[in-house]
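Margin note: ligand = nicotinamide-adenine-dinucleotide.
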Amino acid sequence: MHNILITAGDGIGPEIMEEAKRVLSCFEGELSFDFTEKLIGGAAFEQYGSPFPKETEEAAQKSDAILFGAVGGPKWDVLPLAQRPEKGVLAIRKTLGLYANLRPLTIWPQLVDFSPLRPEILNDVSFIIVRELTGDVYFGEPRGFKEENGQRSAFNTMVYTEEEIRRISKVAFDLARKRKKRVCSIDKSNVLESMRFWREIVEDTHRDYPDIELSHLYVDNAAMQIIRKPSSFDVMLTSNMFGDILSDESAVLSGSLGLLPSSSIGGKNALYEPIHGSAPDIAGKGLANPIGMILSVAMMMDHSFNRPDIAKNIHQAVSNVLDKGLRTTDIWSQGMKKVSTSEMGHAIEKEIRMM
Ligand code: NAD
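Resulting structure:
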C-alpha cells in the first residue's frame, strides 16, 4: 500500500491536481494507493490561520510520498512572512528533511518553437539539476540588519557543513550512474571560501565514484553554458542559491513553465511538485497546463515506488498527446488543437489506458 498525501494548494493547484489524480487512477489495481488530502498555503491559512497546519504536518510525516500543487496568491501577499502561503512549501520541505531538489529538463521536440533558443542548440538537451535545498545563505546564521556609527547594513551567511555537501554530492553521483555518468558541480570557488570548501568536498566524495566523470564550472560560466551549449550537461550539482537561479534559467529552455516537474528527496519520504507557482492570473479558467504536475507523478512512480516502467509510460503518453497536436494555451500555436486543462488530462489518461 502506498500512502500518498495530496496537497493541491491555491490558484491553479487544485485544477492541475485533478489531472494528476486522473493519471494515478490508471494504475489503481496494479498498485494500491491510500490517498489523504490536506490543505496547505493560502487555503490552509483561511481555515486554520497557518499555511502549514499541524494536521497537514502529521499527514505528511505518515505518508510515503506527497503530491504538491502550488501555493500563493495576491489575496495573501499582505500577510507577515511567517503566515504567507509560500511558507507552507518551505516548512513541509524542512520538516521532512528534504535536502535535495531534482529538476529534470526535457526538451519536447514537438515544442522547440516555444524555446527562446534556436532548435539546433536544443539538440540532445536533457539534463537534471540537483540543488541543495536546506542550507546555504538562505538558512545560514548570523543574518539580519544592524546599525553602527550611523551606517545601516544587512547581512547573510553563506555556510555549508561537510556533511551537507557530501550528502548532496552523493545524490548527484548516484543519479549520474543511471544517466550518462557525468556530473558538473557549480561553485564560485575563485572568490568564496564556502564555495572553495564545496569543491573540496565534492572532489573528495567523488573518490568513491571513479566511474563518474566530474567537472566544475564557476556559476557565472554555468549561466552562460546553459544558453550556449545546454547539451553539454548531464547532472548539474548546485548549492541552494545557485541552483535557485540556474534552475529557473534552465526552465525557460523548455518553452513553458507548465511543462516541468520536480522532486524533493532526502528524508524518509519525498515530495513531488511542478516547478511553477499558483498562476493566479489564469486560475479557474481551465487554461493551466497540467503536464508539469503529471510528470511529477511520473517522478513519484520512479523514485518513491520504484516503477521506472510506469514513469516511462507516462512520458510516452504525454509525447503521444503532443504528437496528436493537443495544446493548452501556453504551448498553443497555429494549426494545433487548443484544449483545456481537463481535456489535456483526459487525453493523457486515454493514452496511458491504451498502452
Ligand atoms: P507562476 O509560476 O505562478 O506564474 C508565472 C507565469 O507562468 C504566469 O503568467 C502564469 O500564468 C504562467 N504559468 C505558470 N504555471 C503555468 C501552467 N501550469 N500553465 C500555464 N501557464 C502557467 O509565478 P508568479 O506569477 O511569480 O507567482 C504566483 C504565485 O505563486 C505567487 O504567490 C508566488 O509566491 C507563488 N509561487 C509558488 C510556488 C510554489 O508553490 N512552489 C513557486 C513559485 C511561485
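The radius of gyration is 20 Å.
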